Amino acid sequence: MTQLSVVIPSWNRRQSLRACIESLKTTLPLSSEIIIVDNASTDGTVRMVMEQCPHVRLIKNATNLGFAAATNQGIAAARGAYVLLLSPEVEIIGNAIRSMFAFLEQNLRYGACTPRLLDADGTTQRVHMRFPTLWTPLFVGTPLERVFPDARELRRLCADDFDYDESRDVEVASTTCLLMRKKALKRSRPLDEELWLHYNAIDLCRRLWEASWRVRYLEDACVYHHGSAIPGPLEEFTGEYQENRLAYFRKHHGQAAGVWVKACVTWSVLDTCVRELWHRAQGNPEESLSPIWNSFQVFMKH
């Protein structure tokens, strides 16, 4: 019987995926499987997996279905009682996976656990979060974030007070490396595919907590993560991030919350336009506002 299924959704990550798979060879518990879900990569990922990793189960998608759908495909194919969601940009250190597996085996109230994520230089990545509230859209990506970058809501959301040198419960853990009980997932498609790329970890952890499953951070289980586990302050004013955020707030806070999110995004976009027009009036190099405005118009139709 398979104990653990590792699910790695991937898109054009051939080099990092190879290193990730290599790091798993001697670190998994007995009776484990690795499932790669490739989202129509064009960098030779599929060929690399087929030729160099014959022990891996490979699911090939004809188009990029997004992180959520690819992850759901992998979970549906998983035979293990535990499922490890893993980014291809992760390299496992020592017995990290075995430690996480042992923790869930011994602590039946927990539905998931996550390790310490490290940069290549050994610095701990501060990736944990707390659940967004209706205050969050007012401070994230709006002029208030620029004027008050140390606002209480931002510090709360980013869990600035979280002690990464102590194992403890966490509200929102990154899906970069997250080990879960399969029975805690319940649904056949546990990740909400309307959240194509962003807000998946927040939504998943929220549903785990609401179902009375706890989520644990293990400070002594460490993995290298060669990338960012969470988006920056706001990479874009509109686009996929905003659409996923809108869907999340509607889902968990109701339709009125969707109107609130749109109002905050509108304020942000207008602020960007006004500042750019002011820069032009001062004779500074111009940036085209068309991409932001076009994307904003698409967003407002959702």
Describe the structure.
- The structure is a single chain.
- The protein is α/β, with parallel strands linked by helices and 302 residues long.
- It has two domains: 4-128 and 164-225, Spore Coat Polysaccharide Biosynthesis Protein SpsA, Chain A, CATH 3.90.550; 240-300, no CATH class.
- 41% of the residues lie in helices and 19% in strands.
- It has twelve helices and nine strands.
- Strands 1, 2, 3, 4, 5, 6, 7, 8 and 9 form a nine-stranded mixed beta sheet that branches.
- Helix 2 links the parallel strand 2 (32-39) and strand 3 (57-61).
Keywords, please?
302 residues, alpha/beta, Spore Coat Polysaccharide Biosynthesis Protein SpsA, Chain A, 9-stranded mixed beta sheet, 9 strands, 19% strand, globular
Query: What is the helix tally?
Result: 12
- Total count of strands: 9
Cα Rg: 20 Å
| Proportion of helical residues | 40-55%
Query: How far do the termini sit from each other?
Result: 45 Å
CATH class of the largest domain: Alpha Beta
Profile the largest sheet. 9 strands, mixed
Structural class: alpha/beta
CATH fold label of the largest domain: Spore Coat Polysaccharide Biosynthesis Protein SpsA, Chain A
